[in-house]
Fold this protein.
Amino acid sequence: MALGVNTNVGAMVALQNLSKTNKELETVQGRINTGLSVASAKDNGGVYAIAQSMRGDVASLGAVGTSLSRAKSVVDVALAAGDSISDLLVQMKEKAVAASDASVDTTARNALNEDFVALRKQIASIVSTANFAGKNLISSGTGFTAIASADGTQKISVNAENLSLGGSIITIAAAGVIDTQAAASTMLATVNTSLTNTNRSLARLGSVSKRLDLQATFNTKVTDALTAGIGNLVDADLSVESARLQSLQVKQQLGIQALSIANSAPSTILGLFR
């Protein structure tokens, strides 16, 4: 190789190699710092686009999970209230049977009626307070839908079960009493019908609650699978990056030495003119 002072080819080559090493070292350090082999579109545009799309699905599934959890809570509150109402109806049936007995005197029947009225009022109280997040499935005829898919196209319908007094399920009138034998006998049939209807309503609510549970479990599994898939696409193998880091650090030191040697080469020309 010719020696000259205007152009130092050796230094140029050494500098190019050192710059390449420094760039690779910067890439490896970035992967170690972020834990990602594809942190932005410039790293790998195609993989980054796929990963971002999957991240969008994961975020959407998070919203789906929130919707399902809210729906489950609303239904569970309605179920708890319905269970209590069913127990109250059982007690009301007991009072109605006792009051329909012709051998019961007026004083005893009045006492039974007071208990019956108290139980009836408690049903009304439960119905009016069975709220969650502003929704009450047992006090109105309005249901709602819960989102069940990331794109929002799949939904689970939750129907209302109106357990208000004097309704189609609980047919006991809001002012129903058992203060006479005849009234008690009539009320007994009404209570039996109401109890049967209420238990059917609870069965329907229980089925919806179970479906919401199943969908929430599936939603969690899909989220986990997508998260793992994103990791497979963009996560860096830190054991490999650690080995590369050490290798590049050695190359960097050798490159610096090579550049230093190449830069000192023109000084040897001075020896030719002594």
